[in-house]
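REQUEST FORM: STRUCTURE PREDICTION
Request ID: SP-0412
Submitted by: Lab K.M.
Chain count: 1
Length (residues): 456
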Amino acid sequence: MFESMRPPETPAAVPAIGALASFLDLLPALDTTELGEGALIDVLAGAEATKNALSALQARAAVALDTVVRTRHAAEGIPREKAGAGIHTQVALARSESPHMGHRLVGMAKAVVNEMPHTHHALATGRLSEWRATLLVKETACLSVEQRRQVDEQLLADPRVLEGVGTRALVARARKLAYAVSPSAVVDRARRAVNDRRVSLRPAPDTMSILSGLLPVAQGVSVLKALTGEADRLVGIGDGRTRGQIMADTLVERLTGQAMAAAVPVAIQLVMTDRALFHGEGEPAFLPGYGVIPAQVARDLIRRAGGLRAHGTRTADSRAPGSDAGGTDDLPAPQQLAWIRRLYTAPETGDLVAMDSRARIFPAGLARFIETRDQCCRSPWCDAPVRHHDHVLGWAAGGKTTAANSAGLCADCNYSKEASGWRTETVPGDRHTTVITTPTGHHYRSQAPPLPGDTS
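STATUS: Completed
RESULT:
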């Protein structure tokens, strides 16, 4: 849960800001129910052009912010290699985006405003969307500034070129022009792209997940061919599954060495209430790395694991600092494949019971506690996994290694908060709550997400 607050000292009388505020106040009052078909089409087209033009304004503001911050950092004597730290995070917070997206937005803005005048003009006049402008920036990123300007002019000097042209066709034209301007740069980029290979997982509806692999083209085609070949073989001998099901099952079996229905021996965390686990109640559970899942699905996951074993009991009334208590209780564990680590929430707040440590580095038990409480990076609008267990009040400033003085952050957000002018502090709240203050004095409130059983 996040909340942004504008500092009272921000001047509200700036004409441009006042005009934008008046414009935003006007929009909810516009009534479209009495308009005819033609007028409604005009509203749709006009709103789209306005969004595009506002994107150009945001790009110019981001470039101006970059200049102002770097000038201030230079005056403060900050080393050149560290100048500009945190700019992308400020842009991301202002636009309700993740810091990762902030990097892309600032990079796109600097390229469009400083190096691609025709793209900027098309964006500012509403003819080009921010997404299409971003793709053009990406396709020309391997070129020198002069070469990029050449492609920009050849592609968009005549604004009529955008009429009726789809995104894929526009990108293809930009790619073709880039190759014509500098074949070696395009080829070198393709060779370097191999270093970007990776695998990722993201949630899909109905407790499914999407496993994606960014691979070199030859390897990608080989993987797909192997899966389709196995699917064709099994369908040909009468397998009752669909080709898609066979391909998915084969992928799991070949990567894990286990049949699809087998219990894969990989440790995962599952957060749910004891009421949902033992008494069949319907409170949803939380699976780190995925999100909320139905209680019955969580129970099915545990049953398929083959057994239960409790570990690390913690009650809301104990409130004593410490880590896992060790030992087990009266739950049967015939195979001991599923372990339950019990962390109880305080009933009046829904917050997890705190744990303390005198060490500067968060110990493993407390680190797991923070990851369970925060679920993902605590910076507003950042969904990245927790990579750093951070002291809200820094250790050097006297901050303690406690759950109350902690926040789970991704690496990018943790580094950004160390830049000049940033401050984070804990404030009272029903759940663990912090307020981030940026160098401009803007405040962003972050509250730990609700856990299963929390009704707030």
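NOTES: Residues 51 and 126 are 7 Å apart (CA to CA).
Reviewed by: T.R.
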